[in-house]
Amino acid sequence: MEINSKNLHLLLPGKVTGVAKLYAEDHSCSILEAMRRFYSTKLYKNLAIETTKLWHLGIVALYEMWIEEEKD
Questions:
Q1: Packing angle between helix 12-27 and helix 31-39, nearest 10 degrees?
Q2: Separation CA 70–CA 51 (nearest Å)
Q3: Are 7 and 45 in contact (CB under 8 A)?
Q4: Which of 35, 36, 41, 72 lies 20 to 30 A from 29 at CA?
Q5: What is the pTM of this model?
């Protein structure tokens, strides 16, 4: 299946959940809280845009990008 702007939303929940689990473990918060935080990031906004191709990245790479974003 080709990923495009019409079906990208099918990949996002798995990516968000995986990143949130890592964040919750490292920051002693619930997965739900981590998901809320992630949904409000610039990274998530860019992840949700198909043309950025961020959806190609794995959970760990996305998590590391999020941590870097928080430092800024």
A1: 120
A2: 23
A3: no
A4: 72
A5: 0.92
* DSSP symbols for 32-47: HHHHHHHHTSHHHHHH
63, 22 Cβ separation under 8 angstroms: yes
The owner of tokens 């995986």 is 18
Amino acid type, 5: S
Name the token pair of 8: 């990208």
**What are the structure tokens assigned to 43, written together?**
């990274």
Q: What is the DSSP letter of 28?
A: T
2-26, pLDDT tens digit by residue?
999 999 999 999 999 999 999 999 9
Length of the chain: 72
Does the pLDDT value for residue 72 go beyond 90? no
